[in-house]
Structure formats: C-alpha cells, structure tokens
Amino acid sequence: MSEADAELLTLAQELLARVWRDGRHEVASAVRTADGAVHTGVHLEGSCRRSSICAEGVALGAARGAYPGERPLEVASVVSVQIKPAGRFRVIAPCGVCRELISDYSPDATVWITTVEENEVVPVRALDLLPDKSRRAW
Fold first, then answer.
1. Which of 26, 37, 84, 103 is 20 to 30 A from 95, alpha carbon to alpha carbon?
2. CA dist 27 to 20, 45, 46, 99, 129, Å?
3. Is the pLDDT of residue 137 over 80?
4. What region holds the CMP/dCMP-type deaminase domain (predicted)?
C-alpha cells in the first residue's frame, strides 16, 4: 500500500475509533481524489435498513461537495474499515451498491479490499469489482 493510501487507512481507522457505535456507525471510509484531497465518511444506520447510508457514499458525497460546478469527481483511491471482535480493524470491500457508485464516478479508482482466501489487503480497480457492469453515459 502506498504512503498516500496508508494515510487513508489511518484516517478511516481514526474516524471509526471516534464514532463507532454498535448497530449505528460500524464502518468508516476515506477517499482520495485525483488532486490529493482526502474526504471521509461514516456509515449511518437508520431505524429501517432502507434508510441506512454506507460510509463510502457519505465520503463520495463529501468529496463531490468539495468541487462545485461542472468539475467531475475523480476518485483515485478508496479504503473502508470495520471494527471486528477484539477491537481489531479490518479493511472491507464495498457492498454492491457502493461498488456501483464508486465505479459510476471513478471506474479506475483503486479500491482496497481484504481477500477472502488469503486474508490479504489488496488493491482492485473499481470497475473490476463489477464484471460486465452496465454503464450509462453521463
């Protein structure tokens, strides 16, 4: 993991350590845009699951809000973490909806995930998380 992406990991862990609450705020995400700016977000669980918002969506919304006007959102890298039993952080893959969202805005973004078989943290291109993804013209 590059130094810049390691910084994302640290920021996501620090955010989650500050706000974690079981059943309410269980995931934090940090994104770095192409210009090097970093934006974070935390998962917001609603009383009915449908109203919940993932940390990646919150972070992407914060990043988009930082660039007004016609300038496109260009995300370079995404790291999301969750606290597992024994208080250990774990890098997690985005859910299917967030995979769609990230790849809609930045198909070439690096998304850090933990592999299932090897339990290793590895980079994956956002679009590669959704083989044969339908793409619409913006």
1. 37
2. 8, 10, 14, 15, 19
3. no
4. 3-137
